[in-house]
Every structure is written in C-alpha cells, then in structure tokens.
Design goal:
Length: 349
C-alpha cells in the first residue's frame, strides 16, 4: 500500500508552494495568526497558524468594527498559509522548535511547571525573528467543572452541513446578518457563574479561517471566552474531505487527557451527530461527563441541516446503544437551562 499523501493533498500543497513563491518575491512575509490555547499548571497547548501577509498590510485590529460587521464571509477564506513553516514556541523559559503542518497550522504542547490559573501568553517566533503573542487559558488543577460546546446550530444559526446553505452563510452573508440561538449565551453565563475558573472549549467542524469572525460573534452576543478547536477545510492525506465526527471524537479524547480532573457538560444539537458522539464519549469515559444538553432543531432547521424533517440518525456511527449520561433537550437556551440546572443539582461535583 502506498504511503504517499492523497492526490488532492499533494496538488493543494504544490499550488500553495507556487503561489507563496510569487508572494515572497512581492515582499510578503510569514506572519503568525494566534488562536486561543489552553493548559494546566504543568503544560500548555499552543494553537496558531503561519500565513504570508504583505509587509504594509493593515492590522485587522486597527479596522473599524463596522467594517467587520459589513464584511462578506468569503473574505475569511483569503489566506496564503506557509506549509511546513519552522517556528519556535517559548514561554517562561521553556522553548521548542516545531514545524507547522502543510496547512501552516501549529498545534503543540509544551511542558511548563508552576503556571498559575488565568490567561498567559506564549511566544511564537518565525524564522525571520518576528515574535507573536499567543494567548493560553490556564486552568487550576483543582477545577472539576468544564463546558464543551458545539457552534453550528448550537450557539449560531448556520444551517450546516448542507453545501449550498453552508456556502451562502459562510461566504455571502455579512457578519451582522448572522444570528445567535436565543438563550444560549444566557445559559452559559448562568452555568459558569458558579464556576468562574472553569474551561470553556468550543468544538466545531467549522473552518479555522472563520476563527476571527467566530471570536467577534461570541463576544458580541455575550458568550464566554474560550479556546476553539476547529478544522481545516480541504483535502486530507487520505481523501477530499475531513470527517467531522472524527474531529470531534479526537477533540473530546484530547480534552479528557489534558484535564483528567474535569467532568464536562457537553452541549450540542440534534442536526448533526452530537447526540451520538456525546453518548459514545460518555460510555467510554463515564467519569468525564457530568451532563449532556442537546438543542432540538425545528423542522425547518432539520431540513436545512441535512435535508430531512427527521432527526439525523446515529445508528451508522455507533456499534452499540450505550447507556447515556444524564441528558436534557430543548429548543433553545431558555428551555434547556431549567432542565440542565436540575440535572446538575442531582449530579454534583
């Protein structure tokens, strides 16, 4: 069996390399896009991406907020990643040289002792010496509560994964045209009021290219800040598309490993495979799940999400019918919260 990457992946990397050569001759340089990472008192996970930008490019932070709100979504996907970029990651005396993947993504863990809870900054240094600060949310080793939330159709109405609907929402609709699911931000705020140091992790099959938009959206609508674990759209080493369920499975396993003392509240919707994936995780690691909350999509949303008026079945993705963790369902955050609150009271830390 051949070990060579899939043809699509090779073609994508070849095209990126050729384009980058042209951009480098036009004085574009490697720049680090920081993503929020997370960690504990003895290790951190640093997330970032290396892309090429013009030397005189305007910083997005300097643009007016109104400009972002009226910006079409397709602009999020204009990027020139640097495949295999070599960078140095350092923080508090710990230092490691790493190589980005073929999409320019840096995802690495660094061992550091004695970190205090709160927001810290790691440094990612490019080959030409450019230093970028990357935020890392450090969680106390005594924390036992955490929140994992889906994004699409759980906190933001996106009508994914139907191709044309997703394309319209992702590439055409302006940021101010996107809508939050009612009551979800309020539910998260109330849930975390009793756990101010709890980690919040947003796990989604959405593209990393939309990270800046998602961060602004969550802030604008009052959702708590937290790390996002997204995906890179496009060919993989084995095929044309990435597996959304596999991405979420891997993310949950990594969170269980990185935070061994935390029991998670898992929040998703029934428009994709969240109910089955969460139940599967709870079956495999029952001591890591405190409760599951599922937002029930309307009939119209179900049609837009997967082309059927019925809830998407997970029978093809599960080899067994597991005994589920405590689970509640509702149409929005205002309907979910009283039910979830009762479950949490019956199932304390």
């Amino acid at each position: 069996m051949s070990t060579r990457p899939f043809l699509g992946a090779r073609a994508e990397e070849f095209a990126r390399t050729r384009i980058n050569r042209r951009l480098e001759t036009a004085s574009w340089r490697p720049t680090v896009i920081p993503y929020v990472g997370y960690g504990t008192s003895d290790h951190i996970r640093v997330l970032a991406r290396v892309v090429l930008t013009p030397r005189d490019a305007r910083s997005q932070l300097g643009q007016a907020a109104e400009g972002f709100l009226q910006q079409r979504g397709w602009r999020n996907f204009l990027s020139a990643p640097v495949p295999r970029a070599e960078v140095t990651v350092q923080m508090k005396g710990s230092r490691m040289q790493v190589r980005a993947d073929r999409g320019g993504y840096v995802d690495m863990r660094l061992t550091i002792e004695g970190l205090e809870p709160g927001v810290h900054e790691a440094e990612v240094i490019t080959g030409d010496g450019q230093v970028s600060k990357v935020p890392v949310q450090v969680v106390s080793s005594e924390e036992t509560f955490g929140l994992v939330s889906d994004l699409d159709d759980t906190v933001i109405s996106t009508s994914l994964p139907r191709l044309f609907i997703a394309a319209w929402n992702s590439f055409v609709v302006t940021e101010e045209g996107r809508r939050a699911v009612p009551g979800m931000a309020r539910m998260y705020q109330q849930m975390l009021a009793e756990h101010p140091g709890a980690p919040v992790i947003y796990v989604s099959t959405g593209s990393w290219n939309t990270h800046a938009f998602l961060n602004r959206f969550l802030t604008r609508h009052g959702f708590p800040k937290g790390a996002m674990l997204l995906t890179d759209w496009g060919p993989t080493h084995t095929g044309w598309f990435r597996s959304g369920p596999d991405h979420k499975r891997l993310s949950l396993r990594e969170l269980a490993r990185d935070f061994p003392n935390i029991r998670w509240v898992l929040v998703g919707d029934d428009g994709q495979h969240d109910p089955g994936l969460y139940a599967e995780f709870a079956e495999l690691q029952p001591d890591r799940v405190r409760a599951i909350a599922i937002r029930e999509l309307s009939m119209t949303e179900q049609v837009l999400a997967h082309g059927s008026t019925t809830v998407l079945s997970d029978d093809d993705h599960l080899a067994w019918r597991p005994q589920r963790a405590p689970e509640v369902r509702g149409r929005d955050g205002d309907e979910l919260w009283p039910k979830l609150q009762a479950v949490l009271a019956q199932n304390p830390d």
